[in-house]
Amino acid sequence: MILKNFIVFEGIDGAGTSTQINILKQRKEAGGFFFTAEPSGSQTGKFLRSMLKGELELDPRTSAYLFAADRAEHLWGADSENCGIEKKCLEGKTVVSDRYLFSSLTYQSVTCGEELPRLLNSTFPLPQLLFFFKINPETSLKRVDGRGEREIYEKIEFLKAAEERYEKLMDEYDAKKTGMKIIRLDAEKPREELAAEIWNEISNEVLQKS
Ligand code: TMP
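^ Those are the sequences you sent over. The predicted structure of the assembly is below.
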């Protein structure tokens, strides 16, 4: 199922999704949008943030369950400041999320195999528009190092495996013809150029069709 008005940004760490979301936030035409991210601001999301910093160790399968549980709350939870994406979209609001289930289908499939993340994420709706930020993992890790401390998945071998899975996943979803539009971006382009491409797609694909 496609959730109309829902836009997702995906890519490995350091690909620049958060930078582009920040640029988008500055646009006056995006003043009524709801901007959010996963892990979400729910209690489960906060717990996952400390796991990502390495403050607590979890079995990779437990992390897969928690990312899915956080996603359920993010979609359906009553806390409208951090969650309730589905209701907002159904009411006609444009929602932009930095990461969604495709992060679980890549990162958690690297840590615990493909089957469990696919099972846990099989009931969630797909976004109307998905931006995939394609980048060389060496470049992205340099960007991560330029901004401070690394989180648990921010290692070159891990990011290489994640990038490879993301690219396969995008091809797989294209072939499935789900109705979700996938835009592949060259994340190494100048940020203003990317911002213009992104705005062009959002205004043509989401705002014109709502
Ligand atoms: P970010 O806030 O910089 O995007 O970092 C979030 C980290 O969490 C990033 O390394 C990807 C990881 N992650 C997963 O492993 N699975 C998920 O389902 C999500 C949403 C994020």
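The chain has one domain: 2-207. Residues 156-176 form the longest helix (21 residues).

Shout if you want it in another format.
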